[in-house]
Amino acid sequence: MPISQYDEGSLTWRPNKEQLKRPIYRSLIKQLEKDILAGRISKNTRLPSQRELADFLDINFTTVGQAYHYGIEKGILYTNIGSGTYVSQNALHHITISTNNVADYVIDFGLVSSFEACNQYIVPHLQAVSRSKYVLNLLNYREPLGSPEQLKTAQHWLRQQRITTPIKNIALVAGVQNGIAITLAAIFAPGDRIATDRYTYANFIELANLFHLEIVPIDADEEGMRPDLLAMECKKKKINGIFLMPSCNNPTGQQISEQRRYELAAIIRHEKLWVLEDDIHAFLTNYFQPEILPPFQAILPEQTIYFAGMTKFLCSGLRIAYLVMPEAIRPQLEHSVFNINVKTSSFDAEVLTQVINSPTAAKILTEKFTMTRDANKLFDDFFQLPRPSNPYPYYRNIPVRTTFSQQQIEQDFLNKGVRVFHSARFTTQQQADPFIRIALSSTNLGVLDKGLQIIKDNIACYLRED
Amino acid sequence: MPISQYDEGSLTWRPNKEQLKRPIYRSLIKQLEKDILAGRISKNTRLPSQRELADFLDINFTTVGQAYHYGIEKGILYTNIGSGTYVSQNALHHITISTNNVADYVIDFGLVSSFEACNQYIVPHLQAVSRSKYVLNLLNYREPLGSPEQLKTAQHWLRQQRITTPIKNIALVAGVQNGIAITLAAIFAPGDRIATDRYTYANFIELANLFHLEIVPIDADEEGMRPDLLAMECKKKKINGIFLMPSCNNPTGQQISEQRRYELAAIIRHEKLWVLEDDIHAFLTNYFQPEILPPFQAILPEQTIYFAGMTKFLCSGLRIAYLVMPEAIRPQLEHSVFNINVKTSSFDAEVLTQVINSPTAAKILTEKFTMTRDANKLFDDFFQLPRPSNPYPYYRNIPVRTTFSQQQIEQDFLNKGVRVFHSARFTTQQQADPFIRIALSSTNLGVLDKGLQIIKDNIACYLRED
DNA sequence: CGATTTGTGTGTATACATTTG
DNA sequence: TCAAATGTATACACACAAATC
Fold first, then answer.
1. 3-state SS class at A57
2. Which nucleotide is nearest to A62 (CA to C1')?
3. How many CB atoms lie within 10 A of CB B412?
4. What integer pLDDT is reported at residue A198 of this predicted model?
């Protein structure tokens, strides 16, 4: 028996040496599961380090590493390099954002809807398409990526966002999220790494987990993600892609400045990263601001997969987004679209196309602009907080103290009748500057007013004032 | 340099030692991919054994094993213990079946449509839904898994297929393929293995590759997949799931017998495999045959994810399938549905629900039955070949010689004006009994007659007669 | 049928990257 | 700021199981 440098007495978990069978790495986790179930170990307990436990059991430390890894895959453990391996807090509690399980009386500022009152303007188009002569063409398998006319409309619309692309590089998919899933499956492999803003779209984090990709969060300053930090992380480890929402980051509402876009593009070009550019909020900038900033697709067309979501822009029920892809990876992406979706609903696509080609689009846009502006004004009336760099964001945030957990704060507001999301949902790591996010566009202005009042009345004890 | 017991001259593949970088196992596969793309290695070539290649490269043989394993995950290699490692049938060339790139004048017996003439019966329902009072409810984010009424209809319809399940275990997804993608992401991890019939749904193979899962093909006899072989493969290596089309295998048209279902279920239960049961052709058996055989979902409800596709049954343009899931993995599956789709088109779902609740469903079914029966009769008039165990299959096969490649045969028929698929599309390994598959339901009977005549006139030189 | 060939599963050695204090 | 602690990635050794000849 080797002389131990570790004090066996201090082990937080002591598996039974006698019960250890081969394969060791499975047998170990089996014991661990039993001990968790029996309550002998509680959530968030730090397990012995790989080397400590290996020493105790007289095996190689990488075997313990293997066992822990197996536990991570099963969702019962998580690790932090430098600090150790821990028992998961909520193996089956996912952070996904969906409308499920929210009582009807709760004012939902969590899930981001888009002023759903405008949906009524879609109905006449829906009826027109259902009565049209070509409706039968919408009911078969043909043109899985969209019909020539639909794609031409897409191309024309995209040009207004400074995207110039041949039709063959556009595909219609079932929403931005669906497009991201298709892209992740097509061009990344398990274990690949993707850089994101430190706070980013919660469902992107979830999708990355689903596809076994690692998120590398990068800090930002007032102009957006910091290029120097991106370059540093790229040097540290192989990074394969970057996910960005340049028009209006979710949840921070930040818009990346023009100069910063070029600075980031230089790094991205040099490091050969694939850019996933989620421009779902393009309309918040491109129609509401005098100047359209160049999207990454325009700066790095060979490396960028661009997603133009129509759900927030026009109607959340018509599940359509335009996906613009570089020619080099067109085969993989088309292949992935076909394998994950077979095809996107032609009916939804056609209705959307009709709306875009009609004055209804401008009408909806004008209404949404007015409401977005007024909603921000309303928020400013309640809370004296600086606006983010996008002047008319869909999200506003209120800083909260680190002393309260996500669960505590969210549950408390839910009990008071408002659903808000804590910033922990938008990041993979613990952060020093937590906040709650309020989605301004999820209700009408009357309900927004009521909900903000509830928040104002109850926020005092949580407020963080730096 | 060690003395080699292998003759270096006999290596079927000689990677460049100088270009070999670390990590070796990746670098090796990178070279292999290049060599395949450059045509220096052809499909189904046997690669050097792990030990041979390791000896040649002066590395440990398990490192070569690691590299080969990585290639298997990518879908470009397959191995057989005792006989060696081979380049896949479809390495780096996508076998996905889509309508793309088929000239209009070509009679398409490749892609499986479903007597699209019936789609006209859907139109009135589509118009009715678009004019209904609740149409606005179809345009928002709510109820991502389907509305209570839609789910109730699904539950009722499923009961006719011998599926009894609470509503909470049903989800609406955008077609079977979409449901499979969601399921693979939810419950398997890269490297997991899934058993399938030796010939199986081409797009399932593709999806498995996309998610880095390994296909383990199992042979069948007249009653379906052989349980003894399944048990044997499970003993050989860890298998995590099984994909089955019990009503009507694509492409063989085989229906698994009742007894065989129970025999397979015994193994599956014992080995704790997840069953992915694609019952898209349920209507071919459940309505056309006097007796409904029990689906695996009924035999093993705790282990089965059941997919009931509505696209072949009713209309290929309404992208809806019912997914039935075991309670134990409901959280993961709901999570995956939400992350990959956000939600399925409510409009499509509602139209479909209306159709199922109306006499139109029975009308379409009757017509499809008549056409399927007549199409099979027509095929029998042209070719004297035994029918598979499903008496009214959507597919019929003609055995061809091994001396002609997939490309040769498919291209030749394409030039003659007919698209058919070679059996190589439906398998990952080289097989001794190739055939071409003819999808009977892809056209109307007149076109079918014309197409079968073309095949008959040109098949002679390819025919395999055992 | 049994020796040989071939791939697989498990544990280990080593170099290294990240975080902590 | 840097050493120590901690986990990770890669290659390897060895026992073994299945298929081939």
1. helix
2. C12
3. 15
4. 87
A178 interaction partners in chain B (CB closer than 8 Å):
340-342
Tally of CB atoms within 10 A around A259: 10
Give the start-end residues of each E strand in A56-155.
77-80, 84-87, 107-108
Contact (CB, 8 A) for A252 and A222: no
Cα Rg of chain B, angstroms: 24
Q: Are the CB atoms for B285 and B292 separated by under 8 Å?
A: yes
Is the distance from CB of B77 to CB of B86 less than 8 angstroms?
yes
- List the single residue in B with minimal CA-CA distance to A73: B189
Q: CA–CA separation, A383 vs A398, rounded Å?
A: 8
Cβ distance B44 to B430 under 8 Å?
Answer: yes
What angle do helix axes A202-210 and B330-341 make, rounded to 10 degrees? 120
> Nucleotides on strand D with an atom closer than 7 A to protein CB?
4-14, 17-21
Task: Say whether A141 and B206 touch across the interface (CB within 8 A).
Answer: no
Share of chain A above pLDDT 70, in %: 93
Q: Which two tokens stand for residue B407?
A: 């490309």
Beta bridge partner(s), residue A172: A322
Q: Please report residues of A whose CB lies closer than 8 A to that of B123.
A: 130, 135-136, 139
Task: Give residue A302's identity as a one-letter amino acid code.
Answer: E
pLDDT for position A1: 36
Residue nearest to nucleotide D6 (CA to C1'): A82
The one-letter code for the residue type at B434 is P
Q: What is the model's pLDDT at position A91?
A: 46
Return the pLDDT at B179: 95
- The string of pLDDT tens digits covering residues A182-217 is 999 998 887 778 889 989 998 888 888 788 787 888
Domains along chain A with CATH numbers: 3-87 (1.10.10.10), 107-118+364-458 (3.90.1150.10), 119-360 (3.40.640.10)
| Residue A338 to residue B98, Cβ atoms within 8 A | yes
Q: Assess whether pLDDT exceeds 60 at residue B173.
A: yes
**Span of A18-22, A53-57, B96-100, B251-255 with lowest mean pLDDT:** B96-100
CA separation for the pair B406, B422 (Å, rounded):
6
Please report, rounded to a whole number, the percentage of residues in chain B having pLDDT higher than 90: 53
Q: Is B135 or A90 the better-scoring residue by pLDDT? A: B135
DSSP E strand stretches across B144-232? 170-173, 193-197, 214-218, 220-221, 224-225
Say yes or no: Cβ of A60 under 7 A from any atom of strand D. Answer: no
Name the pairing type of β-strands A214-218 and A193-197: parallel
Q: Which of B453, B433, B444, B448 is nearest to B252 (CA)?
A: B433
Name the residues in B175-234 having a C-beta closer than 7 Å to nucleic acid strand D. Answer: 232
Contact list, B347 vs chain A (CB under 8 Å): 126, 317, 345, 347-348
Between β-strands A107-108 and A418-419, what pairing exists: parallel, antiparallel or unpaired?
A: parallel
What is the rounded radius of gyration, in angstroms, for the C-alpha atoms of chain A? 25
Least CB–CB distance from A99: residue in B74, B144, B335: B144
| Residue B350 pLDDT exceeds 70 | yes
CA–CA separation, B38 and A351 (whole Å): 45
Strand D close to A70 by CB, under 7 A: no
Residues 6+ apart with CB under 8 A from B269: B300, B303
Closest among A285, A320, A321 to A305, alpha carbons compared: A321
Cα separation, A265 vs B112, in Å, equals: 44
What lies within 8 Å, CB to CB, of B171 at 6+ separation is B145, B146, B322, B323, B325, B333, B334, B337
Name B418's bridge partners.
B107
